[in-house]
Specification:
heterodimer; A: alpha/beta; six-stranded parallel sheet; four-stranded mixed sheet; 20 strands; 52% helix; B: alpha/beta; Rossmann fold; 12 strands; 24% strand; globular; binds iron/sulfur cluster
């Protein structure tokens, strides 16, 4: 496979990839959600219950692998199959070549098999003089084009119909109008039929191995897979050993979730159960390990073995929607590819795509086997950081993270930057002069996103006691008598001080005594995100120590809440004391919206209704939806408490592309994700965009500014503070 | 009409559940009394032709073996009947447009018909003919996929090839645009026989 950087840039330069994949992701999302809702109604159980049930089945297999493999082997052999366990791709390829040679075969028809891609079978066969013919339409197109699959289920989804028509015209020497998909699809029947009948060997993958019956379950829609299996005199199965399920009933549970998660079908057209060879046929089943038993031993990634290769994790992945599977992954694509590549193809192969993940968490919400993909990706990222000789940019990241751990240094740096950039500061942004903006390194970073202004004084200075005005008072005082510690968040402290300032004002207006622990710095998220877990642990410990005591902790940054609630327990899992402290802290820490709606600061309906009815729209911070399971809380709050019209934002919960380090390391990708978000924003025509994570705000503001859009991007706190009694007067005199 | 799958909850077993699922999968659904009605149905309709013009029809060898009289009955109705059981069954059905197979059971939940096709002759008819007629007894319809799992489990360890078939072959591989009729049949009819109590076939 070509080096990652090359694949990444090729993908970025192909406009078809992004257009096609965005449309595909949108279409899939809608139909998949409907299919899952139907399933929930049919079963009378939630998606979560159903996927946990399937996960438990797979976990049992992973824990008792040898037993089930033996059971399967005995049953399959009783039915006449020859079963061989192979450890490496090399062994598998050699065995398959030998089987073909022994049968005197030089043409192989192939049903879709990701494992055969995993082991690089086609190259091996060709070198041995055996011609493999892919028979799945998508795989066949790619074989004709000399490409590899970019998706687990829809291998050619990155190709637009125009390109496929050109390809067919060239290879088949016939005319193919690009709008006649029907004709392109149907040519597969005529072109491939002869091959099925002439081939001496058919190869398939498997969707499940059923231990109790020795059966291989194969699903497909086109009918090609079953023809590859059923017609030739030799049938070879390449099966990853993780495909095992104990019983047929278990397989049916997988079927229910697989079709819906893959293509939004209740079941694929064909669900075949193949037990042994037909009369006159030989069947060879290869149970392939290639790193799987080692994965099972590693608690950080073992759950990835539950994967049923449905592709859903790619279908909701915003970066995948920009660059596709040739860049986002290796042989295996999408979120699961970022995890299992390290185990099947080595750490080097896994390293490149790591920085493309924005940690939005969307994959984990749709995975039908409930794999904690975001956590696993960060574990693999840590391993990549630890295992590799660092490239210059890795070293820079490492140093940067180490420096970021020192509060005084960060403080000093930002104050200095504030002074240096004073002449460039204008209206909340830094106006980079043209000669500078066009220099490589900056060009790809500032053109599409204007950098924020660096203020002279951080929020912590502005919120000093004695510097604050007497707050306005709301009629409702739910927080009277409560002490609230404000966790500023490192980013908004220095780059968006108005956000914590507005949050403090709001909390005080509701009666709170707001405190600002001076030692506070950073929750550790940026370090965790960069795979620098030691640094992250140090920062999270420091944060815990700083915030102990006092009633409630409130932060205007939902990302810090996700870190404290979700990631800190994972990082501190080996230290029970710290783990307990982090859990206690998480229990009394709120982001602003949860504090005002579900926490002690609950405001009554109409409390912030000042009569201003300018419509707004809301971007849902991705991790709030995906990790904190918050849904339309901000929208409801704005309607009920502020009395404002909220225009629904299409794809409201899809990541905006900030993604922490992603937008620094892969700016082109972040720009692509942002572009999709801004396109959705345009559809609402709302003049104000509200969200509640400072990173998103800086990113969205920069994008709105750079594209000349006339939309005000506000943090929820800023928007609400404007609606406090007397706010207009205060703003006018400020 | 809809059978009970070993005490499974009957969420799906509305009387019409199976039909609705079959049609949702883009198959045609038909309820008839017996095989005579099946033959009459296949004899009629546009393109069926008449007498000597009638298109040939393939019967799955396992069906012909279970109900030997069917070959004669189709022949009497003017069909040239092909039962692909020779050395090269694929060649035998290469130009036969219609195939008739019998389902072991059907699943209301998904609109699937479970077809056992162990021998090569049984396989080629479901794979190579363009129009596939799946005939299934009404009292073999189970509510849920677990009913099919039970059937498979009873035969576990024995060689076999059983397929849940749900609609005509299809793909969405090009720009996720759904196309019906790809490499397998492009027309599927599910015919439910209502007059065969107890699953016993007419002799
Ligand atoms: S990780 Fe989950 S969502 Fe992704 S392909 Fe595997 S089963 Fe599907």
């Amino acid at each position: 496979m070509r080096p990652f950087d090359e694949r990444y840039h090729t993908a970025l330069e192909d406009p078809d990839v992004r257009t096609g994949l965005t449309a595909f992701q949108r279409g899939w999302r809608e139909s998949r959600d409907a299919a899952i809702a139907d399933l929930e109604a049919q079963e009378g159980r939630s998606f979560d219950e159903l996927r946990q049930e399937l996960a438990a089945i797979k976990d049992d297999v992973i824990a008792n692998w040898d037993r089930y493999l033996d059971e399967f082997t005995a049953n399959a052999e009783a039915a006449g199959a020859e079963v061989t366990r192979v450890a490496t791709p090399g062994e598998a390829n050699e065995l398959i070549t030998r089987i073909c040679r022994d049968a005197g075969v030089d043409l192989m028809v192939k049903g879709k098999s990701m494992v055969s891609e995993e082991i690089g079978l086609n190259h091996h066969l060709e070198a041995a003089g055996i011609t493999p013919v892919e028979t799945d339409l998508g795989e066949w197109i790619l074989q004709l084009a000399g490409e590899t699959p970019s998706h687990l289920v829809m291998p050619a989804i990155h190709k637009r119909k125009e390109r496929i028509a050109e390809l067919f015209e060239r290879v088949l020497e016939r005319e193919f109008p690009p709008d006649d998909i029907d004709r392109m699809v149907k040519v597969a029947r005529t072109e491939l039929r002869e091959r099925f009948l002439a081939s001496g060997v058919g190869l398939s993958g498997t969707n499940a191995l059923i231990a109790e019956g020795g059966s291989v379950m194969l699903v497909c829609n086109e009918g090609n897979n079953r023809m590859s299996v059923a017609l030739p005199p030799v049938h070879i199965v390449t099966a990853g050993i993780e495909k095992m399920v104990p019983t047929y009933a278990d397989a049916m549970k997988q079927v229910r979730l697989l079709g819906r998660s893959a293509t939004a079908q209740p079941i694929t057209v064909y669900t075949n159960f193949v037990t042994g060879p037909r009369p006159g046929q030989r069947q060879h089943i290869l149970l392939i390990d290639n790193g799987r038993s080692a994965m099972a031993e590693d608690p950080e990634v073992a759950a990835a073995l539950r994967c049923i290769r449905c592709g859903a994790c790619a279908n909701v992945c915003p970066p995948y929607g920009v660059v596709g599977g040739h860049a986002f992954g290796h042989v295996y694509t999408g979120a699961i590819g970022l995890v299992n590549t390290a185990s099947h193809h080595g750490i080097e192969a896994a390293a490149g795509p790591q920085s493309l993940c924005v940690s939005c968490g969307a994959c984990a919400t749709v995975c039908p086997t409930d794999i904690p993909l975001p956590t696993q990706i960060l574990e693999v990222r840590r391993k990549v950081v630890e295992a590799r000789a660092p490239a210059p940019c890795d070293r820079a990241t490492h140093l940067g993270i180490a420096a970021f751990g020192q509060r005084w240094l960060v403080d000093l740096g930002f104050r200095a930057a504030g002074i240096v950039t004073t002449p460039l500061r204008s209206d909340g942004v830094t106006k980079v002069p043209r000669w500078l903006a066009e220099r490589p390194g900056l060009r790809e970073r500032v053109g599409w996103r204007t950098p924020p202004a660096v203020p002279l004084r951080p929020a912590r200075d502005r919120l000093k006691r004695g510097k604050l005005d007497e707050p306005p008072r709301l009629a409702a005082q739910p927080l009277a008598g409560r002490t609230v510690q404000l966790f500023l968040q490192c980013l908004s402290d220095r780059l968006a001080p108005d956000i914590p300032k507005a949050a403090a004002e709001l909390l005080r207006a509701a009666g709170a005594d707001v405190r600002l622990p001076r030692e506070q710095h950073c929750c550790g998220l940026p370090a965790y995100d960069a795979g620098e877990q030691d640094a992250a642990r140090a920062m999270v410990r420091q944060t815990i120590a700083t915030l102990e005591g006092v009633d409630d902790v409130v932060t205007p940054a939902s990302s810090c809440l996700a870190m404290l609630k979700h990631d800190a327990p994972h990082l501190l899992r080996d230290d029970l004391d710290d783990l307990e402290r982090s859990q206690q802290l998480a229990g009394r820490t709120y982001d602003l919206i949860s504090y005002l709606t579900a926490g002690p600061g609950r405001l009554p309906a109409g409390a912030l209704d000042d009569g201003d009815a300018t419509p707004v729209t809301v971007h849902r911070f991705c991790q709030a939806s995906n990790t904190l399971e918050r849904q339309d809380a901000i929208e409801r709050f704005l309607r009920d408490v502020a009395g404002v019209e909220v225009v629904p934002l299409p794809e409201a919960e899809v990541c905006c592309g900030f993604g922490g380090s992603t937008s620094v390391r892969n700016p082109e990708l972040a720009a692509g994700v942002l572009d999709r978000k801004l396109g959705c924003l345009d559809q609402t025509a709302a003049p104000i965009l509200i969200t509640d994570n400072p990173g998103c705000i800086l990113h969205l503001r920069g994008g709105v500014h750079a594209t000349g859009r006339q939309v005000e991007v506000l943090h929820l706190a800023e928007y609400l503070a404007r609606r406090l009694p007397g706010a207009a007067v205060r703003q006018a005199t400020a | 009409m809809v059978g009970d799958a070993g005490g499974q909850e009957a969420i799906i077993s509305t009387p019409d559940g199976f039909r609705i699922a079959v049609e949702a999968a883009s198959s045609r659904y038909l309820e008839v009394g017996d095989w005579d009605a099946v033959i009459a149905h296949l004899s009629g309709g546009a393109g069926a032709g008449d007498g000597p013009d009638r298109a040939p029809i393939a019967l799955a060898p396992s069906l012909a073996a279970a109900q030997p009289d069917l070959v004669d009955r189709f022949s009497e109705a003017g069909f040239t009947v092909v039962v692909p059981d020779g050395d090269d069954p694929a060649a035998q059905v290469a130009d036969v447009p219609v195939a008739v197979v019998r389902g072991e059971l059907a699943v209301a939940e998904t609109g699937s018909v479970l077809i056992a096709e162990h021998a090569l002759g049984d396989r080629v008819v479901t794979m190579l003919c363009r129009r596939l007629v799946q005939v299934v007894d009404a009292d073999t319809i189970v509510d849920r996929l677990e009913g099919a799992a039970d059937w498979l489990r009873e035969r576990r360890g024995k060689p076999g090839f059983a397929s849940l078939m749900t609609g005509p072959s299809r793909t969405a591989d090009i720009e996720r645009s759904l196309t019906i009729g790809v490499q397998g049949p492009d027309e599927v009819e599910v015919v439910v026989l209502t007059a065969t109590p107890g699953g016993v076939h007419e002799a």
